[in-house]
User: Fold these one by one.
Assistant:
Number 1:
Amino acid sequence: MLERLDRLQQSDERLRSDVERLSTDVEASNTRFEKWDGRLWGLTLGLIGTAWTAIFAASAVVITRILSGGN
């Protein structure tokens, strides 16, 4: 009976150790994801800003050509 109890306690300790390790891994993964998420948002906003700049520049070129007589 004591042997079974010892085995159960050992299994419980191993399970707790595995759960703690998994918890640590999940926390580390979440931290990495948050960093990547922030970087992706920064990249997205940068690309949107670049697109708007290109649109305004193209509009300025078109307006300038129209006002200058199409040359």
Number 2:
Amino acid sequence: MHKRIDENDQQAHTIGYRAYIYIEYAHCLIRNVNNYFQTLLLQLNAHQPSMLQKKEIYEEDLEIAWNVLEQARLFFKMKNDKHQLKKVYFLQGEIYLLNDQHADAVREFSECLLVEDEQFVCDGTVYKRIGDCYFFLGDRMMATTFYEKGVVYYNGVGNARKSREMELLLMSARDREEMGFREEEHKIGEDGHKIGEGENERVVVDVNHLIRKKSVEKGK
């Protein structure tokens, strides 16, 4: 479980306008970890495990991203800045997704949809993320529901390429639901490749132990 900062006005005032920088910094760190994941999966599939040696570095990056986003969340809740809060919700959802905490990711991404502001991230992207989370949770019905929402969204804005991508995900989720597909037997990565047994089966950047360790050190 990720550690939440106690919310109070004094702490929020202390953070101040650094919160804007925190969001941009966290965004860069998360994007960097996402790129690492894609490279790692490709190298593992090609039997080149050298990237695993850098895993701890990226775990630290996610820990930093989480902690600065918690600071930003506190500040923007005090300011009631929904535009910035939507960024925080989405990025923390991304961290949960990277950490294989899909139910927590759904909660954060759902918060995004409550904010009618698409400057930072469009609702179509959020629908896809939620659909992916439900897919990995084994809830094919909810996965298809959100992939369908994504198709409707992209059709509405006239983005045929994105609409087609969502249709493919929708067809995949429906096929697996009909076949009684079980997640524990097979896993599909976000790039559509199967992750096999052994090391390839579960490549997760785990930041939980780092956050717990930091919490203990602060209490000393």
Number 3:
Amino acid sequence: MIRYMGLDVGDRTIGVAVSDSLGITAQSLKTIKRASLDKDLEELKSIIEEKSVTALIIGIPKNMNGTIGPQGEKVIGFSNYLKKRLHVEIIHWDERLTSKFAENLMLEGDVKRKKRKENIDMMAAQNILQSYMDSKNI
């Protein structure tokens, strides 16, 4: 059984989502407030163990023309850091427009501004993960 965890990695937060046990649907889980690489790693390890995660799907921000910019390079650097320290498969996934999509969903749902800000990263992680799983189940 494969259990996926999706990550939307930013400078200040990491949005986290997990798949169901069948790898069909993604559920937003939490937003980690970043403190240091070691603390980020420990928090992610804890979730990986608790949820029996076997693969991480990490959203890579790309420019609209498909190139990787400065933020994408930071995320790839963080991904490489995780790859050396975690015993799970790490998959990079194009995250273009996932945060915008998540924000639009919350606007349509009339979610208050403060709640949108709190939930945007984990909802973006959910969109990244769902997009990846949908591509596998075609």
Number 4:
Amino acid sequence: MAPPHSLNKKTFSLLYIIRVFICTAALWEANELFFTQKNRELE
């Protein structure tokens, strides 16, 4: 019943890439918010 190993590996890689992309995007958003707040405080 288990799918071929190559398919498993491909799916895993895709999920991993998507997860990394989402995490990176979230970090960028947080950084942007943090820096804009810092800049406002400095003004």
